[in-house]
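Notes, p. 3: input format for complexes.
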Amino acid sequence: MLKRSLTEDAQEVFRAIALIELGARMQVLESELTLSRDRMIRLYREVKGVSPPKGMLPFSADWYMTWLANIHASLFYNTYLFLKNEARCSHLDALTKGYRLYLEHCQHSETEPVLDLTRAWTLVRFFDADILQLTKCCRCSGKFVAHKHDLQHNVVCGACQPPSRAGKTKKAAAARQEALSGARVAQAA
Ligand SMILES: [Zn+2]
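Output follows (189 residues plus zinc ion):
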């Protein structure tokens, strides 16, 4: 293995900590960083207080096509691309900064984040592998996540055309939430 300077080593550790704090799984760390697996597991335990979860990563591109996931994924990927192409960030910086901006956006608009960091990372991989593309919405001109060979013309994004069940789903979710918090209050009493 190549000898790294102490500064470079420290930078890798900081990158690992940033990713772990944002919720990265081990597979993300292993593919993005050059630290040994042992050190990354130790870092993970230190930052999170628990061992990293085992198991496979989610890897279906279809996940990004459902209505709500598509809006969130499109928001994140547009931010990522801006940071990478316009702000000249490295892939890893664009990923972490873009993901932080995405979380901030969710917080400001009082929306639960749908995309976790690992999903965001997988999304970028799908674009790199030419499985996904950005398609321009013919109503708002915004670019949204689509399958590579999907239609490119006269298509409308999820934000411009919410499915009719979206309102109902939201109401159902709110009702569920209320029921849950009611149960918690009841338990506490
Ligand atoms: Zn649109």
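Helices lie at 6-21, 26-32, 37-48, 67-86, 91-108, 117-128, 165-188.
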